[in-house]
């Protein structure tokens, strides 16, 4: 079993920001949440994390209603990397990553050896071992994002939720971060704006508009010129690479 949403809706202040959406990732799959600004991507991630309760429908973890699962248990299974991960405190990279072990701590302090091993593995997976003692705020944007992914990995989750993790990164770091994420042995749901990045790295995609799901499936099946025109209001040509993944070229100045 895994984390899934079953026709969930969320009415926030009288506005339906998620409207009857279902999502059931396969274990180990990378699912891209796509859609224009305000389509409900971040709101759906908050429901999946259990930060807010759905107005209708159910988010379940291993078949159990998430609202009935203790938060510590949720935090051991589900890790989140937000859009604007930042800290005002002068923490080293290691200290940032160690925050991921908090769900595993007990009133007796937890297992120090297990904590150290998890942090070391997370640093190694994200290529940050040699920067562990540096201050987080002195890293590049891409390195800072990798540090927060390492913090999430130190939780040793089965599910990873990422909200636009490539926001404000240059092309190289966008590719580095998504390549890292898709190689991790976890089930991942990632909100993205860039359709070409979604086509490159996601196994399946779910397209949202005004809180509703309008298409779901493989990038090749979903990312068609017709859907892009309908959802984004942009004309596009869609080719395919040798592996069948779509490559999208936008047509500037063409009305749809």
UniProtKB/TrEMBL annotation:
<dbReference type="GO" id="GO:0005524">
    <property type="term" value="F:ATP binding"/>
</dbReference>
<feature type="domain" description="ABC transporter">
    <location>
        <begin position="3"/>
        <end position="235"/>
    </location>
</feature>
<protein>
    <submittedName>
        <fullName>ABC transporter ATP-binding protein</fullName>
    </submittedName>
</protein>
<dbReference type="Pfam" id="PF00005">
    <property type="entry name" value="ABC_tran"/>
</dbReference>
<keyword id="KW-0547">Nucleotide-binding</keyword>
<dbReference type="InterPro" id="IPR027417">
    <property type="entry name" value="P-loop_NTPase"/>
</dbReference>
<keyword id="KW-0067">ATP-binding</keyword>
<dbReference type="InterPro" id="IPR003593">
    <property type="entry name" value="AAA+_ATPase"/>
</dbReference>
<dbReference type="InterPro" id="IPR003439">
    <property type="entry name" value="ABC_transporter-like_ATP-bd"/>
</dbReference>
């Amino acid at each position: 079993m895994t984390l899934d949403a079953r026709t969930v809706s969320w009415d926030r202040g009288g506005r339906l920001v998620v409207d009857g959406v279902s999502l059931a990732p396969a274990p180990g799959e990378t699912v891209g949440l796509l859609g224009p600004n305000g389509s409900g991507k971040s709101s759906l991630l908050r429901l999946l994390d259990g930060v807010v309760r759905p107005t209708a429908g159910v988010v379940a973890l291993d078949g159990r209603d998430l609202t009935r699962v203790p938060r510590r248990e949720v935090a051991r299974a589900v890790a989140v990397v937000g859009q604007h991960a930042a800290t005002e405190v002068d923490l080293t990279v290691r200290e940032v990553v160690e925050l991921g072990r908090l769900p595993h701590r007990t009133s007796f302090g937890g297992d120090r050896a297990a904590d150290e091993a998890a942090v070391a593995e997370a640093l190694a997976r994200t290529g940050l071992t040699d920067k562990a003692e540096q201050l987080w705020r002195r890293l590049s944007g891409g390195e800072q994002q990798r540090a927060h992914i390492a913090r999430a990995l130190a939780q040793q989750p089965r599910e990873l939720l990422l909200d636009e993790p490539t926001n404000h990164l240059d092309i190289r770091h966008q590719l580095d971060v998504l390549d890292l994420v898709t190689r991790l042995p976890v089930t991942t749901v990632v909100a993205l704006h860039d359709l070409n990045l979604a086509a490159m790295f996601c196994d399946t995609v779910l397209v949202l508009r005004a809180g509703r799901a309008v298409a779901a499936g493989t990038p090749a099946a979903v990312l068609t010129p017709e859907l892009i025109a309908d959802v984004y209001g942009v004309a596009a040509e869609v080719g395919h690479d040798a592996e069948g993944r779509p490559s999208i070229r936008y047509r500037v100045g063409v009305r749809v």
